[in-house]
Amino acid sequence: MRISLTIMMSLFIASSGWAGFKLPNEYQKLEACEKQNVLWSEVERTQHSSLPKYHKFGVLQLLGMTFQQLTTKKARQSDVAPKKWKKFLHRRGSMAKVKIVPVENSPYTGVLSGSECALLRLSLTYRPTKKRGVAPGLALKVLRTGVASANISALYRLDGQKKNYNFFEYPLSNIVPIGTDVGLKLVHAIFKRVSDYPEELLVNHLGEYNSKGQKESTPKSPRQIFFVPNSDLRMSADKHEVRDDFATIPKGTKIYSIYAVSDKHGGFDYYDYDEAAVEKFEKDSVKIADIVTTSKFVASEFGDTRIFFRHEVRPKK
Asked: Is the pLDDT reported for residue 215 higher than 90?
């Protein structure tokens, strides 16, 4: 029996404490847009009255990542983080409701063929410092009726874009070159506990089920996608709070276009993926969809600590 959205929303409203938040038992059976409403109500309810500061990210935080169960990130089929889950990277950000609008005659299936109800979170990987650059990242959650959501995260580079604070300066991708400095090599080693390819997230799952929860008979997804920012969204390159930029973006804005890398590059060697390959792959990619906001961006405690984006990691050899 379907549980009504009104009853579910009352469960959230009746909850007086953050620690008591949990998804209803029948949540997974809901339609995609009903799931979006449930999650978005928590975003709005826990909206920050003032933007919290970024947390420090250093040796202690790296050590903390080594003890946290990274396998949870690839195995958990939920839109909400487990109890005591600690977010070490992308700690502070902003989220908006979005839709995926496909181009005509796109060959790709599943949620890449379009979706009315998704959530997009924008954040910096860590707090920029004198030695650490600005590192934009996004996480996209596409809600699906009756089945788990499809999730994908993307970065520009692990070490960011130096001191350029324009979040929308460069395309982001599900695959980035392996970092070369000591800190990034350590992060690579930590995530290698669950994958031999820590800098690559798979996107094949995006093509398996559409937003209605229907399994595709012949699923098709690219190996790599680029999220190309709308050129009209140029922000200041000078040091400032990027979450203030997000708050100025109106509902109905095309924020990214999704480009699929040509299949001819599908078999490239992960360990040979470098800056030259990035440039070549970007040039040979084809637009398959736009991501359009259906709300304003909101910075919230739920969006910072409780929303959960699953990582579809490439299996070990």
From this structure: yes
DSSP state letters, the chain:
-PPPHHHHHHHHHH--SGGG----TTGGGS-HHHHHHHHHHHHHHTB-SSPPPPPP-SHHHHHHHHHS-THHHHH---SBPPTT----SS-SEEEEEEEEEEPTT----GGGG-EEEEEEEEEESS---SSS---EEEEEEEEETTEEEEEEEEES-TTTTTT---TTSS-EESB-PPP-SHHHHHHHHHHTTT-S-TTBB--GGGGTB-TT-PBPSS----S-EEEEEPTT----SSS--HHHHHHTPPTT-EEEEEEEEPGGGTT--GGG--HHHHHHHHHTEEEEEEEEESS--B-BHIIIIIB-----BPPP-
pLDDT tens readout for residues 6-24: 333 333 333 333 455 788 8
Confidence (pLDDT) at 71: 60
Name residue 242's amino acid: V
